[in-house]
Amino acid sequence: MSYSNQFYEAINSGAKQSARALLPHLSRITAIQSVADFGCGQGAWLAVWKELGVTEICGVDGDYVDRAELLIPSAAFQSADVSKRVDLNRRFDLVQSFEVAEHLPHFAAAQFVENLTSHSDFVAFSAAVPGQLGVHHVNEKPYHYWQHHFADQGYLMLDCVRPHIHNQCDVEWWYRYNTFLFVKHSRIAALPAEVRATKVPIGAPIRDYASSTIRLGRQVTRWFPRWLSTRIANASFVSKAKRSA
Questions:
Q1: Around Cβ 192, how many Cβ atoms within 10 Å?
Q2: What pTM was computed for the model?
Q3: CA distances from 108 to 102, 133, 134 (A)
Q4: Is 190 within 8 Å of 158 (Cβ atoms)?
Q5: What is d(CA 33, CA 244) in angstroms, rounded to the nearest whole number?
Q6: Given 94, 111, 116, 192, which is the most exposed site by the fewest CB atoms within 10 A?
Q7: Spatial contact of 32 and 94, defined as CB atoms under 8 Å apart
Q8: What's the pLDDT tens digit per position in 170-224?
C-alpha cells in the first residue's frame, strides 16, 4: 500500500512535536551523531534530529514518498521496500522505526526487525498494539511479540523512555505508550546504571501506560471486523487531515 502527501501532512505536525519532546531522552542514553529511520515518511523525525545537532541522517521508505515534499535533503532519502531485506552498507549510532511495523504483513515482521538490528546496536522502536486502529494497520501486536523478534537478533528490551514521557500531552499517545529501546546484548554493560535498570526480561510483564479510556477502547475495537476498523481509521484520518489543512 502507498501513502499520499495528504496522509503525511496529517501526521507531520504531531510527529515533529512528539519528536522534540521524545528524542532528547534518547540522546542522553548514548552518543548519537548518525541516525537511520526505517519507514521515515517525509522525514519529520529526522528533521528534528538535525535540529538536535545530528550530522548524518538517512531516511528509508517506499518509492511512493514524494521527494519534492521531503522535510530532509533528498540525498538523505533512500527508496526501499522495508518489508524485504534492506542493506545500507553501513551502521548508525541509532536506528529508529516509529509506528511502522504494524503496516507490514505479519510474515515480514522478522525481516523488518533484522533490517533494523543489522544497521545499529541501538534501535528505538514503537508499533501499534491490538485495537489501536490506524490506516492500513495489518499487524497490530502486543509488546512482547516484538520483544521476542528482537531477542532472536540478540537485542534486549529497555523501557527507558516511556516513564519520562507517558504523561506528556505534547507527545502523541501512540509514541508515549509504545516506545522502547532495544540494545544489542554486548552493549548493555556500558550503559548508565539507571538505564540498565529498565531492562525487561523475556516473560516479565510489560506495563501498559495507556489511560483507562484508551485501554477500554482498544478492548472493544480489537474485535471489530477488518472492514469496520479500516472505515473508522480512515474517517479519523480524513478528519485530522482537514484540521491540519
A1: 11
A2: 0.90
A3: 10, 19, 19
A4: no
A5: 32
A6: 192
A7: yes
A8: 999 999 999 999 999 999 999 999 999 999 999 999 999 998 999 998 888 877 7
